[in-house]
Amino acid sequence: PALLVVAAGPWHSVRWSHAGLDFGWHARRSLATELDRDAAELRRTTEACYAHYADLIDDPYPFDSYDQVFVPGLNWGAQEMPGCVTYRDELLPRGAITDTQRAIRAVIIAHEMSHMWFGDSMTMTWWEDTWLQESFADYMGYRVAEAGAGFSDLRVEVEVRSKPWGYRSDARRSTHPVAPLADDVPDVDTAATIFDGISYAKGGACLVQLAFWLGDEEFMAGVNRHLTRFRFANATLADFVESLAECSSKDVRGWVEAWLRQPGFDTLTVRRDGDVPVLERAGRRPHAFTVAAYDSALRLVGRKRVELGDEAVRLPEFAGLVIVPNAGGETFAGLRLDPESWASLCAGLSRLEDPLVRAVLWSSAALLVRSRDLSADDFLDLVEAQLPSETRPDIIEGVLSEARSVVIPHRVPASRTAGAVARVAAAASAGLAASVDDEQRALAWAAALAATSADAAMLREWLDADKVAAGIALLPTTRWEAVVRLASLGEADARFIAAERDRDGTVEGDLGALRALAARPSTTAKDAAWEAMLAPGVDNRRFGALASGMWIAEQAHLLRPYVDAYLAEAPKLATRGQAFALEVGRAFPRIALDPRQLDALREALAGDVPTILRRSWEDHLDDRE
Ligand SMILES: [Zn+2]
């Protein structure tokens, strides 16, 4: 449905021809150095994805050129117009780019390219079929960046980052089927709220399960039949199901009904009959997945494909062993292991050889915190005990992000927040010490330590030296994390922050300084930040930076009046337009809220709240319940 875009320069461009087509990468002139730094990789990734789609999809590339533009101030991560994709230019970071950032960027490149077919050639009829473009693009993005562009183990990123978002979304009142009914998406404001964890993360995960359950050949045959049939045409769920059913002897319609037409997710349970593990499913969907079995030293003993439905599945060949269902991350379901397996795995999580299994278990632990089957303390125990020896930066970053932005604000009361943040800092400190010979891991740990440490002297040392340690750079984003952290500790005044802004000299520096000024622990600083957020001309980026500095986890007491002010003013702010309304929702206080504040939120929701903000507030409330 994205039709056209006008990108006004001046641009710095890299253009070339390949396979009879004109390609280009463009960035604003002030990012010329960064574009030149990454041009070879961006071109290689683009060509590799293009070649892979040519192999995978019968229908030839539908347009006559392919340009990709890094633009400032884009509200979405990226946006696919036919033959021209725009990306937010944060994807072209200053300084060094980390391996995790490179991998995620490749996934986005592959995701957007898939939209040339899924969305731009074959287009949904109305917004209820948003999944026909976004779930497929989510699925294809990971698949093609890995198989085509050669970024390895991307399913790890899916498990630690994407699926937790999907599970969280699916446990809220706002959840909906991956493919809802047209009547449930009556207008464009409702449509704007459907670009969510269900349409992307869960939908993509459902397609992984569909391909695994059906077999890849039949899955792709159905997909190709659908794309060819609806080249430059509009399609619906029913059209897709028809194409798929023509290519398979399995009960595709039953599968679609169970997986795409019902909200919620199942839980896979392991119990023991004597020594024999027995798999059971709480829920109503058929599942196909791999079970991995380990001995008591957590060495892999065997793997097996299992199909689980209404009937329990006994695994006598794995008697007495530690069991992990969904070891390949093939299905979308919670895990409840038998106590013996869970205890062994928690004690040796970072020793498991397969990073995907480690990621599946971290994701399961986060889900258990959500359902209150695991306490925040137990989760932080696991972080402190296991994460410092984790070897994958993407797992480190994903788990720390879950701990800091979900577990602590949603499950730790204000009186204990400082202690919980200190535990994350302790894990980060141990992790950094353990990864001095691995720069990628060290960069991940340094970013977390900069945001959580109470050691002002150490942070100042990093800033003075402009590095974390010998051989470990202080990335510009981490540098700003450290400045914001110092400000929140009362260790950076306005002069200090202004000097950092001048030293930076870019728009990121302006935003970082705004954030740092707002983070200072005084009523004067918070008043000024709040005033700036209410200013009529504030743009989305500045508003977001101010909010991010405003809500500091350990400042819950100081922030009490601003929580009330936010609840009172936000509905008015959210009438400025769709993108700003999303930003106002994201500016929700990311701190522990007490029962009185949650009641105030419920009361505010009983009043007149614009559609997009209402959705965001209900989600924030549900995440805390
Ligand atoms: Zn997309």
UniProtKB/TrEMBL annotation:
Protein known as: Aminopeptidase N
Listed Gene3D superfamilies: Neutral Protease Domain 2
Highest taxon in the source lineage: Bacteria
One Pfam family per UniProt: Peptidase_M1
Recorded family membership: Belongs to the peptidase M1 family.
Keyword annotations of the record: Aminopeptidase, Hydrolase, Metal-binding, Metalloprotease, Protease, Zinc
Domain named Peptidase M1 membrane alanine aminopeptidase: residues: 47-259
GO molecular function: alanyl aminopeptidase activity; metalloaminopeptidase activity; peptide binding; zinc ion binding
GO biological process: peptide catabolic process; proteolysis
Tagged with keyword Protease: yes
GO-annotated cellular components: cytoplasm; extracellular space; membrane
Enzyme Commission (EC) number: 3.4.11.2
Organism: Nocardioides turkmenicus
Domain annotation ERAP1-like C-terminal: ranges: 323-623
Cofactor(s) required for function per UniProt: Zn(2+)
Signal peptide extent: none
Catalytic activity: Release of an N-terminal amino acid, Xaa-|-Yaa- from a peptide, amide or arylamide. Xaa is preferably Ala, but may be most amino acids including Pro (slow action). When a terminal hydrophobic residue is followed by a prolyl residue, the two may be released as an intact Xaa-Pro dipeptide
